[in-house]
């Protein structure tokens, strides 16, 4: 990255323009005066040490790069989305540049600066909530983008791909109700996340339809990580009337639920039933295998990439917001609640 930035800086100095102006020329942006564009392109042509990369970008009007930014690589959730993006790009001449932000605003700003100052054809973003400033900057620099699995509120003009979280929350709860459970806990993400709100709303809707009261003690927030599943399960087991079933906000959370139940000498599903969310590969590797809500993560990555390619080509989208269906995958982690005599 340092070599690329110094090359752009040298071109800017020799052409007597700013670095962002060179970036706009490299990305074939229209907001550059013809005389300035010609001067920058002449310097680029003369700079033989960057001829192959820059000349190709100018000739094709393309850098050949799609940027994908995700919070981290600690979760199989993101690997599935990445896999979907790769599957589509393999059929093109484009390559993917992968960055992580660790959900830190500072890293997100750094990534944004590098994308704007460098050369990219477009971006796919899986970022933390509060993305509006980043999206506005991309728009201002005419960089096409698509958001995957948004965690905050997005305007109607923001292209995005997600899943039917409300329906998934309802389906998981209805399944547990059908087995006879009445004390059903949910461990969601942070309350300000849209996906958490939607899943809790689906959970509440199923309970209300069944004529059951909503117990706030059974609704637990946290991160979509294993430690949250462990900590919140311990808290739920300490209640005067613990749940007989736990609906986890992710399969990774569910692994923490499993660990906490084992630590308390409880068995899945004999003592407590568990449902996850996502259906990542680990769901079939644990024992008992995990009943979960399948979120089509790879398909979300494929859909986002397909949408982005259309935007890059200047084609209109059929819809700015795509929601792919979630579905219940029944395995071995659920059973009717134990009888009171046990």
From TrEMBL:
The keyword DNA-binding is assigned to this record: yes
Alphabetic keyword roster: DNA-binding, Transcription, Transcription regulation
SUPFAM superfamilies reported in the protein's UniProt record: lambda repressor-like DNA-binding domains (SSF47413), Periplasmic binding protein-like I (SSF53822)
GO molecular function: DNA-binding transcription factor activity; transcription cis-regulatory region binding
PROSITE patterns: HTH_LACI_1, HTH_LACI_2
Domain of life, source organism: Bacteria
Classification via SMART domains: HTH_LACI
Ranges for domain HTH lacI-type: 6-60
Annotated protein name in UniProt: LacI family transcriptional regulator
Organism in which the protein naturally occurs: Thermogemmatispora tikiterensis
Lineage of the organism: Bacteria, Bacillati, Chloroflexota, Ktedonobacteria, Thermogemmatisporales
């Amino acid at each position: 990255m340092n070599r690329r930035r110094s090359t752009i800086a040298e071109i800017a100095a020799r052409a007597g323009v700013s670095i962002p102006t060179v970036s706009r020329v490299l990305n074939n942006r229209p907001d550059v005066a013809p005389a300035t564009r010609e001067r920058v392109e002449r310097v680029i042509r003369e700079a033989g040490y960057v001829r192959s990369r820059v000349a190709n970008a100018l000739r094709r009007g393309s850098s050949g790069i799609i940027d994908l930014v995700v919070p981290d690589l600690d979760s199989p959730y993101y690997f599935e989305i990445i896999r979907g993006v790769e599957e589509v790009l393999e059929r093109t001449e484009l390559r993917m540049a992968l960055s992580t932000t660790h959900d830190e605003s500072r890293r997100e700003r750094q990534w944004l600066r590098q994308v704007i100052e460098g050369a990219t054809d477009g971006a796919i973003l899986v970022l933390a909530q509060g993305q509006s400033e980043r999206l506005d900057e991309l728009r201002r620099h005419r960089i096409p983008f698509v958001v995957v699995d948004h965690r905050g509120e997005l305007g109607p003009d923001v292209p995005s791909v997600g899943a039917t979280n409300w329906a998934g929350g309802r389906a998981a709860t209805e399944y547990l109700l059908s087995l006879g459970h009445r004390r059903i806990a949910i461990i969601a993400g942070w309350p300000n996340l849209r996906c958490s709100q939607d899943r809790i709303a689906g959970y509440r809707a199923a309970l209300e339809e069944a004529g059951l009261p909503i117990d706030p003690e059974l609704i637990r927030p946290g991160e979509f990580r294993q430690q949250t599943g462990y900590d919140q399960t311990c808290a739920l087991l300490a209640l005067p009337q613990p749940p007989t079933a736990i609906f986890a906000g992710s399969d990774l959370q569910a692994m923490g639920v499993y660990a906490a139940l084992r630590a308390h000498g409880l068995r899945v599903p004999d003592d407590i039933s568990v449902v996850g969310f996502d259906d990542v590969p680990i769901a079939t590797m644990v024992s008992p295998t995990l009943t979960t809500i399948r979120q089509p993560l790879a398909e979300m990555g494929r859909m986002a990439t397909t949408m982005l390619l259309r935007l890059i080509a200047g084609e209109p989208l059929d819809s700015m917001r795509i929601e792919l269906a979630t579905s219940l995958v029944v395995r071995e982690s659920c059973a009717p609640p134990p009888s009171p005599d046990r």
